[in-house]
Structures are given as C-alpha cells and as structure tokens.
Amino acid sequence: MGRHDGGPDTAHPARWRLTALLGAVTAALALVFTLSVGWGTSGGTRTPDPGKNSGAGPSALGWGFTHTQYSADLGDDGARQTADRLLSDTPLPQNQHIMGWGADNPEPRPGSYNFTDLDRRVALMRRSGGTPVLTLCCAPDWMKGGGPTTDWSQKSLERAPDPAHYQDFADLAGVIAQRYPDVRHFIVWNELKGFYDDARKRWDYEGYTRLYNLVYAELKKQRKDALVGGPYVVMDSNEPGSASNASTVQGPWGVLDQRSVDVLDYWNQHKAGADFVVVDGSSYTREGSLLIPDEFQATAKFADVTAWLKQTTGLPVWWAEWYVEPPDAQDERKGWPEARRLAVQAVAMTELARAGVATAFYWNPEDRTGTDCAGCLWRPTQQTGGGRSLPMYDLLSRFARYFPPGTGPRTPAVSGPVRALASARATVVVNTQDRWSTATVDGHDLRLSPYEVRWLT
To answer: Which helix (H) or strand (E) holds 409?
Structure first.
C-alpha cells in the first residue's frame, strides 16, 4: 500500500505492494446494517462503549496526513516558509515514521542515536501547530541481522526485527517517547512488514503481537500519557462472490480477506492494551484492482470496515492510509485527471466521516519537481515557488474544519447524480459524473461541472 521509502537521501524510493493477506477466524457472528455487511468476530469481541469509539476523546484526531520521503522540512527557504504558513492556517494531525520516509536510521549502533532527521520533522509538526504522531517503524539493521551500516534496500528495510531484538526495538520506542514529550500518539509498526509467514501462507500475527505488547508496555512505562495503537494491517478485499479466503465482512464492493480478519482477531484477543485500532486499505480489490460497482460506490468499503472494527474491538478507529485510485506497475497513482481523483477522494471521506472514523491520515504523495503532482497536498518545497496549496490539501483541511470527530454528520436529501454529506456548519456535494449535472440538495437546485466538489456553508 503506502510506498515504503528508503533513507533520506535515496533517489528512487522502493515501493511497497502488499502481495499476501491474512488467515482463519475462530468464530463469527452476523449483524445486519444498511448494506447487509457480515461481521467476523471472536471471543475477544466486546460490546463497544458508545462514548469511547464515537469520535470523542484523546484518540480522535480527525483528518491529517503522513509525511513521506520529501516533505516541507527541506528545500527552498521561501517555499518552506510558504508551506509553514499553509500548514499553520488549519493545523492538521501529522504522522511521521521513525526510520524511512524521510528519517535516517535512529539507532545505527546499540545505544548510539541519530535523531537529526526525526528532530527536523517533529520541529515542522510543532511549529505548524499540528498534532504530532509517530509510527514506530522501521527497525535499525543490527536488530535484524545487519550491522552498523544502513541497508536502504526494500528487502532490508521491510524486514521485521528478529524476535531476540523485540525488546531492543521496544527500548528504542521508549527513548523516542522520552525525547518528544509532546508526542502522545504512537502507531506500532507499518502493515505488518516482514511478518508474513511463507510456510504457513499467512501473517505471523503471533510474532507481531509479541512485538506490539513489548512496545506498548515500554511506552506506558516511560510515558503514562502515551496513547498506543495497532496492528496497522491492510484491509484487502476480493471481488463479490469470491471464495478465496472469504470472510463474512462483505458488501457490494467485495469480500474482506479472511486473513485480514485473523490478524485483527488474534491481536484483539492477545494485546496488552490499546487506545485505538489502526488499519489501512483501498476501495479496489486485491486481485485486478477492480472498483466495484464503480469508483464511487466502492468507497462504501471504508464505512463498512470502520463499522466492523468498532463492533469487533470497541476502540476508536484509525485509518493510517486509504486509497481510491488503483496503482500502475510502478505503484504510482497518476492515471486519473485531478478532478476525478478529488471527487472520488471526497466521497471516500464522506464514507469515513459517516461511519465515525476517529482519525484518518492521507498518505501524501511525494514529488521534488514540477507543478503537476498527482494527489499531492502542496507544490514541492524543493523548488522555487513551492509550498503552495494543491486541491487535495483544500479538501483535507475543509473536512478537518467541517467534519471533525464527533460531528454526527447527516445525509441530505438529494436527487441527481451526486453524493452529499452535511454537518451543522457545511454541506459537501460531489458530482459523480464526468459531465455537467443538475441536482437538488435539501431543496436547493444546483448545476455542477464535471466531477465538481462544491461546499455549501
């Protein structure tokens, strides 16, 4: 899913494509809701506390983004200042990984630390007023069989710590938690990278949960105010009717892979504790990248999976990444016109908001040059004149302003080829057609340009 970048100076970041999914649940129950979604669960399921996962509380950060290899902490001075002003105007939660995605190896040798890059990213988050979040991934080479020299290859970077070094990784997490006392929110690992068991054709969720529990314990030991979540598993799905690893979590968009359910099921039963549950995923299918029934209706998956996660875990739901546009062979998402991309993203975000997501991080695509950065939040700061807002940033910041956690949005009365969502302060209307369309929203007649996203305040 999210591209797994190499070191801060890597010219061509490696791409992460999840090619394997997860394996067999211990029990299931069926619930009916508007889209007739089936629910997988287990003995670890408990009745959710409505106040805990309804969008209120310290784990509900709302709409934000993840920094990737090239971000606004480096580049042209003027461009960085422009980006600083942009990010300060509507402060958003910001997520940064501790190694990779623009951050150097934080502990190249046992007990020898290098936080230069991480300090710079955290400083950017601080001065722009965004709530800082750290994803505890990836692991220094010496924790996975290497030496003091960092191997930034994809194979090395995506390797999990050796079990003998799980505690060492937890200790590093504790050092980081102490170094940044204003960072309260921590995600443990990324997409179970390095935890796939080829022999058993499933994820080693036992190994991941052992690592998670050690990290959780260390963070709580060092910082009583720390909020911790996992397992950051990919919610991959297959097309409707698929019998391959089919779970009971399904909708018109497809069938959630049973092996994804197994990770959540095991982690939920055996975790030492959690303040929120973290996943990522796409609206298209794992095989063939199909958007079913179409690119707009497929986004219902985000609402359905969010509701299932709430029911299964009783925890606030975080989406660390979400994707609506299928990637090409290079894992790039540049095939759609920007207007179409923005419209589908807007509908996906209405689905997440409708389901009561607590936190959602947009994976900010990276670019160093050019004025046409597909899906990017701002123009690259590595060039003169960079740092200015792009359409996706406007969409993200408006959702942060008008649909924060706990809003309780409603679906307006509509007619015509549009999707809409309303809060007490604004209504967003999206034309789902590639042509001019007329529609009525709550009694108001509108004429919308192709794929227009219009805000009525």
So the answer is: none
Q: Does the pLDDT value for residue 1 go beyond 70?
A: no
Whether the bond into 404 is cis, omega within 30 of 0: no
Unique residue bearing structure tokens 């399921």: 45
DSSP 110: T
Q: From residue 200, how far is each of 29, 233, 378 by CA, in Å?
A: 26, 18, 43
pTM of this prediction?
A: 0.89
Cα-flanking dihedrals φ and ψ of residue 71, to 5°? Answer: -140, -170
Phi, psi of 127 (to 5 degrees): -75, -20
Q: Taken in order 111, 116, 121, 125, is the CA torsion positive or negative? A: positive
147, 129, 226: which is closest to 184 by C-alpha?
226
Secondary structure, 3-state, 140-183? CHHHHCCCCCCCCCHHHHCCCCCHHHHHHHHHHHHHHHHHCCCC
Specify the amino acid at residue 297: Q
Token readout for 29 is: 């129950």
The region, left, alpha or beta by phi > 0 then psi within -120 to 50, assigned to residue 445 is: beta
State how far the Cα of 82 lies from the Cα of 67, in Å rounded to an integer. 17
pLDDT in tens, 134-154: 999 999 999 999 988 999 999
| Residue type at position 59 | S
Residue 377 is inside which H or E element, if any? none
Longest dimension (CA), the chain: 66
**Residue in 148, 75, 160 with CA at minimum distance from that of residue 384:** 75
